[in-house]
Model the fold of this input.
Amino acid sequence: MAKTKSPDVDELTIIRKELALQTEKNETLVAELLVARKELVFQKEEKGKRAAELGIANIELAFQDEEKGKRAAELGIANIELAFQDKEKGKRAAELGIANKELAFQDEEKGKRAAELGIANKELVFQDGEKEKRAAELGIANKELVFQNDEKEKRAAELGIANKELLFQNNEKEKRAAELIIANKELVFQNEEKEKRAAELIIANKELVFQNDEKEKRAAELGIANKELAFQNDEKEKRAAELIVANKELAFQNDDKEKRVTEKEKRAAELIIANKELAFQNEEKEKRAAELIIANKELAFQNEEKEKRAAELGIANKELAFQNEEKEKRAAELIIANKELAFQNEEKEKRAAELIIANKELLAFTYISSHDLQEPLRKIQTFVTVILDNEHKNLSENGKYNFQRMQLAAGRMQQLIEDLLAFSRINTTEHEFEKTDLGGIIEEIKVELKDTMQEKHATVEVLELCPANIIAFQFRQLLYNLISNAIKFSQPGIPSKIVIKCAVAKGSQLNNSKLSAEKNYCHITVSDNGIGFEPHFSERIFGVFQKLHSKEVYAGTGIGLAIVKKIVENHNGIITATSELNKGATFDIYIPAG
Amino acid sequence: MELKQLNVLLADDDIDDCNFFKKALNDLPLPTDLTTVHDGEALMQMLNNETGMLPHVIFLDINMPRKNGFECLAELKQSDRLKDVPVIMFSTSNSRDAMNSLFKTGADVYIRKPGNFEQLKELIHHALPMATEKVFSNSQIKYILNA
Done:
């Protein structure tokens, strides 16, 4: 070890450093003491405060002590009570021990069932979700179907009407076509006749022209003959004058020539006779000339007449020629019209075929309505009953009410579908009429309505009966609807009394202007003593969906009387309703008595 | 125009629909006062009572007992006193022919009743101002509201 300084110096140096260090430490301590002193002063202040607080707390404690004394007394009493209760609890603890064991066992069971219910609950929640979806889908599908029902019924009604109209038009056109064919034949025949007559007239004309010519020739000849006769007459008068001169000459010669007297006297006598003969011939010829003049005049007149007739015939000929042309034109038009009719007939046959297809589709729709449409509805109804039965406790009052209203609405839809189906079935008219006893039908209905009738104390009285020519099953529906209506709309508290009459009478004896006076009708009356209706509703009540009361008051779809009216119309009959409010109602049905 | 309270008259025979309507109206942020009648005759009797106040708007169902919506609308529009009350038709039907005929007769708005309560609220909310503003604008435009 090598040391350059003495150990003392080294020690002093160390001591000095030590001292310096201690001095520093002392200074630090003094500073800390100052801080501590301040802290102590603060703590003293704090302790003063706390002492004051403790004074208050002491007073509080003294008060609490008093309170505790009181409570200790109370607790003494309570202790006695508790001691008694302890005994009781000992007893009950023993009982509870037993009960606890029981509960422990039940707990285990419940644990198991809770686990099972947990699983089942999840399943139900899932199923509920699924069912809501399907219910929503069904709601939408329902609306769509109802709309389609409306549309299809409208179309069916339109098609039905159009069918009838087309059938009627077809018949009419067939009749007209047949008439046109007959008319055509008639025209052809008339044409032929007229052509024959025209030909005859032409011949007759030619004949007349020829006769005219002949008569003119003859008239000319007669004129010449007349002139000739006149000339001959003149000649004969000249010769008569000459003969007279000759006679005088002869008489003179007679005087002279007595020899030749006898001869000449004979010749004279002959000449006298010849003269007389000539005079006579003259007279005859004058007569004939007069006759010829008359005949001439007559011929001239006839000529004029024939010219007139020829002119008339000419006009008539032209007229006939014009008519011929017109008839040819019309025949051409008829041929075109015939072709048009044939084309229309074809078109109508096509449409009839289409209608047959449409009808088949409607039948399919009816089947869908009767089955498919009711199925989702039935499911809605079933789900509602399941929810109302099983979830009754879980549903709020409002929830229960809503489900009940849903049930009512679904029930109403079911009734609507059934009634509409009944209404549409009445449309099909391919049913046979048969003589039927209404009494039997009424008895059947009474059996069917027995419960309702008892409930409302209703009676059905049949006063008169006659066999009626009806479609039996439709009439059964008609009477059922009228009788059940009468019971439904009875006056509260008054037994419903329904009276039915049936009699045959002539239209003129019945009080309805729409009936034919000479026809026989089966007059059926159904009257009741129910609430009736105001007279101004007497037509409206037969309309489809027409109701006079809210469905909350009198349930129903408003189709019943529409069905009744349709059935009566299927029987070519008339139905009227007469009533006053609260004075009962009377339905009069008139159907032809076959 | 700000109305303090809208007096709404509803004519509908269906109790459920009346209840839905009332609830929907209550849920809307509009101050309304609802009166309800259940058939057309009752509606016309109420409106023809000259001493009564006229509603601000009428919601009119079509299919009702005794007198239907068509007949009521025609009577309303023929009356000088009633013809300016806005009429909102309110029906399940979606027949175009029916709608056109109703608009021709003078209906202002046609609401097809929806199968959903929230939609019902929206439709009524939408229709009310349309009908009531018509009183002042006399618009010829017709509206069909369909959910």
The mean pLDDT of chain A is 85. The beta strands of chain A are 434-436, 459-462, 468-470, 497-506, 520-527, 574-579, 585-592. The helical segments of chain A are 7-256, 261-370, 374-390, 397-427, 438-448, 450-455, 472-488, 560-570.
